[in-house]
Amino acid sequence: MKKYLFLLLSLSPIVIYSQEQPFKSISVIENPSEWVLIFDEFGLMGYINSEGKEIVPPIYEKIHPFGEYKENWSRVETLEGLTGFIDSTGKTVVEPKYEYIEKFGEYKADWALVSLYNHYGFINTKGEEVVPPIYAEIPILKR
User: Fold this and answer.
1) Which Pfam families match (predicted)?
2) CB atoms within 10 A of CB 57
C-alpha cells in the first residue's frame, strides 16, 4: 500500500504540470484597443471590444500577436491550417488561403513569400498578391 501511495504522490506533479492549458492569456500589448480574446464552444478564437461588440468572429484556430509580421496586422490560422492576416480594426486584409507566409522583407522590401500547394509567390504590405503562388521554387538571393 505504501508503495502505491508513494508512486501516486510522485507521479501526480508530472500529471498536473504536463496538462496543456486550454486557453492562452493574451495581454493588452498583443491586441489593439483592449480587445478581449473569446473562444466559441469548439475552441475557435475571436475578439470582442470592451463594450462586448464582436470585432473578430471566433472563426480562427490561432490568432498571433499583432505586429509580428507588420505593424497593426495579426496572422491568423484556420482549422484547415490556412493562414492570412487581420488588421487592428478586425478587417481581413489577407484572406487565410495560404499554407505558409514568410515575414515581410526576407526576399524583397515590403514583400512576403507565400506558399500554396507547394508553390510559391509573394504578397505585399497592402495585402495584395503581387506574384501568384505558381512557382515550384524561389531561391533566396544574397543581398
Assistant:
1) WG_beta_rep
2) 14
**Contact call for residues 112 and 123 (beta carbons, < 8 A):** yes
H-assigned helices in 53-109: none
Give the cell for residue 121. 509567390
Q: How far is CA 75 from the centre of its chain?
A: 4
Look at the pTM and tell me if it is higher than 0.70: yes
Q: Which tens digit of pLDDT belongs to each residue from 29-80?
A: 456 668 899 999 999 999 999 889 999 999 999 999 999 999 999 999 999 9
Cell of 34: 483592449
* Grid coordinates belonging to 23: 486557453
Which H helix or E strand runs over 6?
helix 2-18
Q: What angle do CA 63, 41, 91 make, to 5 degrees?
A: 35
